[in-house]
Design goal:
Helix content is about 70%, strand content about 0%. It has about 400 residues and is mostly helical.
Length: about 400
């Protein structure tokens, strides 16, 4: 039986995934995967919806606000990172935009804390899995019954996007669905019976979305999880193995950075990554103008009325984000914000590897796999400082959940 609170959370996660975005925006989307929304004013329909969502969360957690804030206070790095968002309105050229985006992120933060306080790990993953399976089913129906909506045309011809704004969004959510299912299989007998069907369905949608990145990321995430799970090492050998893993990875990354153009040409791909390398070079110049504190949350990508106008003119197209989450953090909160996030991430990623690979604590499998997905995807798209988005809610939930002394499976 699905109780009202659980139903509410399922609906919220459906929209947090980015599904049915046109319903909230009250408009149409382009084949580039962008919605017609004013960067400064935002969208009134979406704002009203999320205000109602977060007011409901406040009402549900009214008696727990103190303990929820205490939970956040115990995670000092995350707390400083969140406070920096609000403080950035002091140096933002558009303080009202910064405050609006900060409030939205604070609402998402509150939802993440509410989940930690009231649900077990598997309880949250079940809710997410149900929500993503629903978006998957509707995406299938949209592609088959409403191909003009569910399938991309012109750009990425024939790729399924389902009820999402872009094919990569569909692929991304199915990767998270696979990760949730792989964790739930270990604890939930009901999920275990249908896990294979869920995974195959998710992989099918990834293939139909033609999102090769999603396919590779899901494989890499599962591979890393299984490698660390199968390792049987003592502390000294574990440290050596991790060191070798890091050094090998560093060599591979170094090689790719120095030879990526030849590799991409050999694969028949655009060596500029569809203009992204040119974009990133221009963004590096923009970051250098305000390196320490950045432009304030939401203070850079403002179309022709903001600093992004110089970038648009230089690259010859009109991106609305960096297509790299680490660049976006540096633009919004400067190198200070980027450093805080990197320290926060490495702190928990190291803990997940240590607890899962060395101490064989199965509960850390979610932390390891989700963090791996986040790490890789944030190189491709902005996944961190994004309000009303599933990634930020899961970042808060995951890092605060594993910061508890007693964790409920």
């Amino acid at each position: 039986m699905i109780y009202p609170k659980k139903l509410f959370l399922i609906i919220v996660f459906i929209f947090l995934s980015g599904a049915f975005l046109t319903v909230l925006n009250g408009g149409s989307i382009t084949d580039s995967g962008t919605a017609d929304v004013d960067a400064e004013a935002g969208n009134l329909g979406a704002q009203i919806f999320w205000i109602l969502v977060y007011v409901t969360v406040i009402i549900l957690s009214a008696k727990q606000i103190g303990s929820m804030l205490a939970l956040l206070n115990e995670n000092k790095i995350l707390l400083f990172f969140i406070l920096l968002m609000l403080l950035s309105s002091l140096w933002s050229d558009v303080p009202l935009v910064t405050l609006r985006k900060t409030i939205s992120l604070y609402g998402s933060t509150l939802l993440g804390l509410y989940l930690v306080q009231n649900y077990s790990l598997t309880g949250v993953l079940r809710i997410i899995s149900i929500a993503l399976n629903i978006t998957g089913i509707f995406s299938l129906l949209a592609a088959l019954l409403l191909p003009s909506y569910g399938i991309m045309h012109d750009l990425h011809e024939g790729a399924w996007r389902g009820v999402f704004i872009h094919k990569n969004h569909l692929g991304r959510m199915m990767v998270i669905n696979i990760v949730c299912t792989l964790v739930l299989v270990r604890y939930d007998k009901k999920v275990r019976k249908r896990a294979l069907y869920i995974i195959l369905f998710s992989v099918f949608l990834i293939i139909k979305s033609q999102s090769m990145g999603a396919l590779i990321i899901s494989f890499v995430t599962v591979f890393i999880n299984q490698v660390f799970r199968s390792l049987k090492l003592k502390a000294n050998l574990f440290a050596v193995s991790v060191l070798v893993f890091i050094l090998t990875g560093s060599v591979i990354v170094y090689y790719l950075l120095n030879n990526y153009q030849q590799i991409l040409i050999g694969l028949g791909k655009d060596p500029t990554l569809t203009g992204r390398t040119i974009l990133w070079s221009q963004l590096s110049i923009a970051i250098a103008r305000k390196p320490f504190l950045g432009y304030g949350l939401g203070g850079f990508w403002l179309g022709n009325s903001g600093p992004s106008a110089l970038v648009w003119a230089a690259v010859g197209w009109e991106p609305i984000q960096s297509h790299n989450g680490y660049f976006d953090i540096a633009l919004d909160l400067g190198l200070l914000g980027l450093a805080l996030f990197i320290i926060l991430f490495l702190k928990y990623y190291a803990r997940f590897i240590y607890r899962y690979a060395l101490l064989k604590q199965e509960i850390y499998s979610w932390g390891l796999m989700f963090s791996t997905v986040l790490l890789i995807y944030n190189f491709e798209e902005s996944c961190v400082l994004k309000a009303n988005n599933i990634f930020w809610v899961l970042i808060v939930f995951t890092f605060c959940f594993y910061n508890q002394k007693k964790m409920r499976v």
